[in-house]
Amino acid sequence: VTASGRRRLRALGFRVGDLATGPRNAISDIAGVRVGHVTLIRDTAPGAAVRTGVTAIVPPADVFAAKLPAASYVLNGHGKALGLVQIDELGTLETPILLTNTLSVGAIAEGVVRWTLGRHGDARTVNAVVAECNDGYLNDIRGLHVRPDHARDAIEAATADVAEGSVGAGTGMSCFGYKGGIGTSSRVAEHTLGALVLANFGRARDLALHGWLLRGAVADTGASAGDDGSCIVVLATDAPLDARQLRRLAVRGALGIARAGGYAANRSGDIVIAFSTDPDGARLRDESAEMDDLFRMAPDAVLESILNALCVADRMVGHEGHVREGFPYARLEN
Amino acid sequence: VTASGRRRLRALGFRVGDLATGPRNAISDIAGVRVGHVTLIRDTAPGAAVRTGVTAIVPPADVFAAKLPAASYVLNGHGKALGLVQIDELGTLETPILLTNTLSVGAIAEGVVRWTLGRHGDARTVNAVVAECNDGYLNDIRGLHVRPDHARDAIEAATADVAEGSVGAGTGMSCFGYKGGIGTSSRVAEHTLGALVLANFGRARDLALHGWLLRGAVADTGASAGDDGSCIVVLATDAPLDARQLRRLAVRGALGIARAGGYAANRSGDIVIAFSTDPDGARLRDESAEMDDLFRMAPDAVLESILNALCVADRMVGHEGHVREGFPYARLEN
Amino acid sequence: VTASGRRRLRALGFRVGDLATGPRNAISDIAGVRVGHVTLIRDTAPGAAVRTGVTAIVPPADVFAAKLPAASYVLNGHGKALGLVQIDELGTLETPILLTNTLSVGAIAEGVVRWTLGRHGDARTVNAVVAECNDGYLNDIRGLHVRPDHARDAIEAATADVAEGSVGAGTGMSCFGYKGGIGTSSRVAEHTLGALVLANFGRARDLALHGWLLRGAVADTGASAGDDGSCIVVLATDAPLDARQLRRLAVRGALGIARAGGYAANRSGDIVIAFSTDPDGARLRDESAEMDDLFRMAPDAVLESILNALCVADRMVGHEGHVREGFPYARLEN
Amino acid sequence: VTASGRRRLRALGFRVGDLATGPRNAISDIAGVRVGHVTLIRDTAPGAAVRTGVTAIVPPADVFAAKLPAASYVLNGHGKALGLVQIDELGTLETPILLTNTLSVGAIAEGVVRWTLGRHGDARTVNAVVAECNDGYLNDIRGLHVRPDHARDAIEAATADVAEGSVGAGTGMSCFGYKGGIGTSSRVAEHTLGALVLANFGRARDLALHGWLLRGAVADTGASAGDDGSCIVVLATDAPLDARQLRRLAVRGALGIARAGGYAANRSGDIVIAFSTDPDGARLRDESAEMDDLFRMAPDAVLESILNALCVADRMVGHEGHVREGFPYARLEN
Predict the structure, then answer these.
(1) How many angstroms away from the CA of C243 is the closest CA of chain A?
(2) Which of A160, B6, B33, D295 has the greatest number of CB atoms lying within 10 Å of its CB?
(3) Chain B interface includes A267 (CB < 8 A)
(4) Are C76 and C268 in contact (CB under 8 A)?
(5) Mutating which of C212, C227, C270, C287 best tests the D interface, going by the most D Cβ atoms within 10 A?
């Protein structure tokens, strides 16, 4: 329960699917994975509102020294993500994963580079991984209020206790016409899978809450996340997957967006980044059984992450007086 | 209503989403697109059952002479589809699209080549497009009962009146633990989009009929399509899309599989092939509006196609006495 | 030296690069890898000539029972290769690799399936890998003279002694305006890399024999391989590469085509398939050193394979009286 | 002839291939395409040397208002390029293309965003395109001497008169063990193709100057560009290509790297970005003829660009006293 009384999906009596969650039901159920936020909220002038921030997903140990297996999947690429080229080629992650707003990728990239250089005196090449959504409806995005040092601050604030909703990069985001932002969830079988999303997509009419049968009956609130709406997904697992297997897992993460009702709008930047905390990178041998466990987990964990973002995020008044209401829980009931 | 009394989803009082369908609610709502089936059902010896076939999706006019814009998307590639390499490179389709069982891709490829050579006396290269699912649970798949001439027969049987369920390539297929097969649907706004699926995937527990909220409460029937389960999707549209745009549309077709509850199992061959019947290949200029219309249509049309396959296909006894029950309509109600 | 007196490149006093070759300077320098050919040469009627065939690259042991790490790379995809979808997804090879003419992919696919079913009584899914070039200039390609059993015959004829030039799938192929076909070569450092090509591309003016400085001075013979010209490359290695690494290696194989003067013409189907004979699939740890060794080997081995095909293949008179001369060795001198 | 007496390849009496060049033999032969450099050379302390910079390739007109068809191709992805995700999805370019050093991608990205926001008061999303090579051998790369405003300065300095060698992003780069940097070239047939490279790859032994036959005889100078060596290629054309066709053209650009002797080392970031200045994006109809003209041009123009970089760049003493000699022209003769 947040200060304003907002709750996660399960605290409201609902759940997604039949697979077990980890103890935190968060990406930090993967041992050593932590999440940090820098939240920027201030009013700089009448009508000019800063509603933005930075979120860092921090892998265990020193990932630059001991790179981890990683992969990416682009469901729709109207986005400005940095670092995917090298992940795709080498199949490794060497920095935390940073999320921010669309126009601040450069600043955060510089911040990640500075932070890495500061810890590694001989580093001369750094593959900063930064993804973004567009918070320009609630945030003075043109003001470029995110600065390089915010990357360091987010990384150093990382904890296993993951705040959700209007925090960090999620501060100014919208989802299905309501306030969106950061959400997380996890699933456990033989291995654990954690998801964290930056949810900033969809119109009210698209939300597939009641399943396809009833979707036509849901009234459109008229609210819209705009056609820049996107969803960034980060998946972490302790399963010993190699890069090829992680890419397959990332594809399944994107299916969770579809289950929520997303259709990857033309102007969306829907991107999944997946990594394993098993540094040995030994791959699972029996793909049929164990991979299918993970493949089932991914859409469920991503869908529940999206709904957690929606349920936790509270009403916000932002730039130029724009307003996003908190998601009305009554819509879960019918 | 089929001879055995099976019905399509809408005849049962349900629908998918709020977008309008075309007059046939079938891929043949795209002018000139027709579908033909060859259905092979016979018992060759005690316990040895042929339950297989071939389905041809036939574009308008002479597609070899006037190639059409086309694209493919592989959601999961444990499959044996032929012809995608050239579609991906040149962005064009030059033959009908043939569907059959896993071990018969070669025979049908030769059939498509023979059929094309017969009509084009100067042809010396033909890109046959063939996709498949594995019907080995109900069909004596190792018997290789599909022969090259069945390709010709399916093409020449094509009509705008699309039979669904256990016909053509769908004859021996299973879906969500019940009898599956061929299904089709369409959506209409400024342009028309049609889908046809060969549905052969999923266990009963995975079917997302009631949406995610209730999924955990659905009992598993114990029936399984096996881990080879796959779904082939063909999309046709009269919208003037180029190959790049069609590939983006194909991605959205795959999202319909996710909406049904599919997660692209490790051993699935989930493949989408999309083509436009507009030979000019001029691309839509205002992508934001018109592309989003099409992007919304694709998951809905694919989901309804899958459910049509499930609702229409009737109980079948097959190879080695294996049985698939027809989908019980009562499951739609609760 | 062939019966007609043709020689390999090194027998003519030339070499490619400064890396050492294996003892056979052939793909069979990878322990257990063998190559078999079926060569079809006959005159069926005045002017109607069969000049085609099948080549099988056979991995060690029973590859269906113990699948090997594999990858593919499509430099240009105007081609009809079968089996790449599953190789790309699962990163494994489970059949020999078959090469033939463009219109015979279906027949050979059925042949590979039959051969595999015959050896594995429980097999119900087989990913046949078949690639092709177009021999329609010298061969009556529309006659479909390659039959399914030729796949079995090529596989069962496999030996470590690799015949080159106008044999197997290379029988009717052309290269740089002269007679082309099958060529092979290898390189050895810590690990061994072998290449085999089906060379059927390029005009005389494109051959970069003397390097770029002199290329403009080489007269065009007027001969042309036609715009269907393609080059299929198979790479085998005993290095313990995983599928991601093999794909990277496959990319370097394509660079050998460029070194020969190829530019991947619009209508080419230039495709590389790479596999490792190390079944453990453990990946190299020190990518920088060992991968670069392999990356240097690949273009050299492919270039020398192409030149071996060119040097060994002898003059051929084919369909409709078409003629390809043997490559004149004098062109190597100046 | 530069101030220090260095010359382009053709001024030395050599050429690449037999196709005609444009009047400038530069990427600016494409009407409206201009190139600007910011060159940073200063000694900040004993042994600490700034040898870096920024290069902007500026398309005609206001590319943000009228986006141009574009595509990318990654030959090897050990690189930090930004902006490729959106280019790949939408097939359009909306900013100049900026080149700089590896650690300055973030700063330059912010600079491009600021420059675009300054000119477009309603812009809320900007896809900055930035690519890089690693100049850490000659440059104090860890000093992060490139600042955001250098992006603006490079863009505003753009001219049709393209400086080559140790300028802009090329200031601290190395190639084949000698001084490298910026090079450009063009080819003309029915349409014009221009190339610009940032050449920073290869060891002396790899340079294929004399063609493959003699390569083994070339002595290794011992100099090395290090294992971070990369080559960025920008292609511009006035041919009316769509994004799919431009991607195919980009692949051919990469073949020019291979012709020079490059093999895309494990740690290289070899990336090609191609765009058309034809805003209509109508695609060529007769791909066979016109595309092949362009496909032949690309490797030649890229190879000559690399050699121009090598021939023009002069000796440089840099960070920690590291030295790169100018390429000795005598090596062209034998």
Answers:
(1) 8
(2) B33
(3) yes
(4) yes
(5) C212
Question: Looking at residue D226, what is its pLDDT?
Answer: 52
Catalytic residue among C104, C268, C276, C305: C268
- The rounded mean pLDDT for chain B is 91
Residue D29 has pLDDT above 60, yes or no: yes
Q: What is the reported pLDDT for A208? A: 73
For residue B272, list its beta bridge partners. B73, B233
pTM equals 0.96
Half-sphere exposure of D177 (CA within 13 A, CB side): 14
The residues of A carrying an active-site annotation are 230, 268, 270
Contact: A90, C287; criterion CB under 8 Å = yes
Q: Which two tokens stand for residue D230?
A: 């990369």
Diameter over CA atoms, chain B: 60
CA atoms within 13 A on the CB side of D112: 32
D81 in A contact zone (CB under 8 Å): yes
The alpha carbon of residue B93 is apart from the nearest alpha carbon of chain D, in Å, by 15
**How many Cα atoms within 13 Å fall on the side-chain side of residue B98?**
38
How far, in Å, CA of A230 to CA of D318, rounded?
45
- Cβ atoms A154, A171 nearer than 8 A: no
Q: Report DSSP state, residue D13.
A: T
What is the C-alpha separation between A143 and D126, in angstroms, rounded? 14
Q: How many CB pairs under 8 A join B and C?
A: 135
User: Residue with structure tokens 């007769």?
Assistant: D286
Integer CA distances (angstroms), A295 to A42, A252, A260, A301, in order: 41, 6, 17, 10
D4 is catalytic: no
Look up B286 and say whether it is catalytic. Answer: no
| Rounded-to-integer distance, Cα C301 and Cα C186, Å | 6
Confidence (pLDDT) at D216: 42
Question: Under 8 Å CB-to-CB from B17, ≥6 apart: which residues?
Answer: A212, A215, A216, B296, B300, B303, B304
D142: nearest CA in chain A?
A: A124
ipTM: 0.95
- Does D247 contact chain B (CB < 8 Å)? no
CB nearest to C86's CB, from B79, B113, B124: B79
User: What are the Cα distances from residue B45, in Å, to B48, B143, B286, B320, D150?
Assistant: 5, 12, 59, 10, 80
Q: Check CB contact under 8 Å for D106 and A107.
A: yes
- State phi, psi for C180 to the nearest 5 degrees: -120, -155
B291 and A208 within 8 Å at the Cβ level: the answer is: no
Parallel, antiparallel, or unpaired: how do β-strands C129-133 and C97-101 relate? Answer: parallel
Q: Is A214 on the interface with D (CB under 8 A)?
A: no
Cβ proximity of B47 and B320 under 8 Å? yes
Distance of CA B194 to the CA centre of its chain: 11
- Report the residue of chain D nearest A75, measured CA to CA: D89
E-strand spans in chain B?
A: 34-45, 48-58, 68-77, 92-93, 97-101, 129-133, 174-175, 178-179, 181-188, 192-200, 230-237, 269-276, 316-317, 323-324
Name the residue among D277, D296, D253, D254 with its Cα closest to residue D20. Answer: D296
- Dump pLDDT digits (tens) for B121-178: 999 999 999 999 999 999 999 999 999 999 999 999 999 999 999 999 999 999 999 9
D78 in contact with A at a CB cutoff of 8 Å?
yes
CB contact under 8 A, D244 and B91: yes
Dump the DSSP string for D110-128.
HHHHHHHHHH-TT------
Contact A258 B263 (CB under 8 A): no
Catalytic-role residue among B230, B276, B300, B305: B230
Query: Is residue D74 within 8 angstroms of chain A, CB to CB?
Result: yes
Going by the DSSP 8-state scheme, the letter that residue D172 receives in this structure is T
Query: Mean pLDDT over residues C311-318, rounded?
Result: 97
* Phi, psi angle pair for C160, to nearest 5°: -80, -10
